[in-house]
What we know:
Blueprint: H1 40-60, E1 68-70, E2 73-82, H2 88-99, E3 103-111, E4 122-131, H3 135-143, E5 147-152, H4 191-206, H5 220-240, H6 243-255, H7 266-277, E6 280-283, H8 290-298, E7 301-304, H9 322-333, H10 336-349, H11 354-369, E8 372-375, E9 378-381, H12 384-387, H13 390-396, E10 402-405, H14 408-411, E11 424-428, H15 431-442, E12 450-454, E13 459-463, H16 466-490
Parallel strand pairs: 6-7, 8-11, 10-11
Antiparallel strand pairs: 1-2, 2-4, 2-5, 3-4, 8-9, 12-13
Helix pairs in contact: 1-3, 8-10, 10-11, 10-15
Organism: Stegastes partitus (bicolor damselfish)
EC number: 1.14.16.2
Pfam family, one: Biopterin_H
Amino acid sequence: MPLSSSSTSSTKSIRRAASELERSDSITSPRFLGRRQSLIEDARKEREREAAAAAAEAAEASEQIVFEEDDGKALLNIFFTLRTSKTPALSRTLKVFETFEAKIHHLETRPCRKLKDSLGGLEYFVRCEVHLSDVNTLISSIKRNAEDVKTTKEVKFHWFPKRIADLDRCHHLVTKFDPDLDQDHPGFTDPVYRQRRKMIGDIAFRYRQGQLIPRVEYTEEEIGTWREVYSTLRDLYTTHACSEYLEAFRLLERHCGYSPDNIPQLEEVSRFLKERTGFQLRPVAGLLSARDFLASLAFRVFQCTQYIRHASSPMHSPEPDCVHELLGHVPMLADRTFAQFSQNLGLASLGASDEDIEKLSTLYWFTVEYGLCKQNGEVRAYGAGLLSSYGELVHSLSDEPETREFEPEAAAVQPYQDQNYQPVYFISESFSDAKEKFRAYVAGIKRPFSVRFDPYTSSIEVLDNPLKIQGGLDGLKDELKVLTDALSVLS
C-alpha cells in the first residue's frame, strides 16, 4: 500500500502531490470565441463606446464583483434574468459578451422563479473569460440590459485524473522510509540493497499506463526472505484470515505462481485481478501521497511495489514492499465486494479538500490496511497490514487491543500508529455493511460535483450538470431492463 502517513507540522503526514486547479475540464459546452479576427477593430471601437456609457455606473457600484484572476484574465460566473428571450434584450445582452471578446465556457438557461407571472422569463448562467481590465464595464453593460445581475466565485478544487492514462502524472514520492535517506531503514548501510532498490524503482518511473509490467528476476536472497514470511503466515491464515481471503489465496497459488519458492510477477497477478474484479496493478517506486494513491483506486488501479524488504528484517518492514502487496492486498482485491469498497474510497477522494483526504486515508488505514470483520460468530482479519505481518495478525485477534464497531465518522478521526501495533481496531459486520456505511459517509463530503467511473472507457465522468446526470440514469435504465428481462425469462 504505497500511501504516505508521515507527519507534517500541522497534521498527520499527507503531502499533496498535485495542487492544480480544475478549470478547462469542467467545460460542458463549446467555447464562444467572440468576433472573428477581422472584426476585432470594430469590436474595440464598440467596446470603447460601451465603456464610456457604463463608466459612471461602474464607479457607483456598491457591491464587489467576484472573480478569479489568471494571467491577466478574469474567470467570471454571471447570473442574470430576462423577462423574455424574444425581445431585443437577449440579443443586446449577448452582444455585450461579443463586444468585450469574452470567451463563453458555459451557457445555461432555466425558467426564472421570480418572473413566473411574465411569459418566457428566463434566468441565465454564463461562465466566461474576459480581460481583467474589462470586468467592471462588462458587468455594468449587462446590467443595462438584464435584471438581477450577480457574480460568484469560480469554484476551485484540486486537480485529479480524468483518464486512466493520467495516472502517469502521479509520480510524486514521499521520502519517508527511503533507504537512501532514512537512517533507521534496515537497508541504509547496505549499498548493494540500495542499488537494487534503485534499479527496481526505475521500472516504475519508466512505466506508462497500458504497457506490460516488466519482470523482476529476484535473487536467491530475496526469494529466501519471501519464503520465510510466506511459510510463517500461510500456517496462520486458516485460523485468522477471512473466508474471502482464503478463497482468493488458493486461486493465486493455483494460477499465479504463489508458493514459498517463487515471488509472483506483477503482470501475471494483474491479469488475474483484471479477470476477477477489474482491478489491475501498476508498478510504483515507493510511497505515494495519499491523494495520488487514492485517485488510482478510483480507476481500479492498485499502485504496487516490486522490491522486497531487507533480508536482515524479514518479518517486519517499515514501508510497503512486494510481500505486503502480494500477500496482504492482492487476495482481497480479488473479491468483488471488497474491490467495490476500495474503488468507492478512491472515487470519494477525487477533488476532495486536504482535510477530507486526511479523513479518507485514515478510513483506508482502519479498513483496507487494518480492518477486522465478523464471520460465523468469529472475528477475522481482512486488512493487508495484518495479513502481511505475523506479529500484528496475532496481536489483532488477541485480548490485548481495543475493538470497536466500524463507524466511518469515528474511524476517520481515530489516531493511528504506524510504528507499532495498533491499540484500536474497527470490526465490520460484513464488507457489504461497511460499503453501505461508507456510502452514507461520502454523501457528506462537500464537492461542487459528483463523479462516476465509466468502465467502458476507463475514465471519470464529472457530474456537474443535469444533462450528464440524465445520461447516467438512461444508462442505468438500460441495465435494469436487461436484468428485468432476465428475471422474466427465469419465471
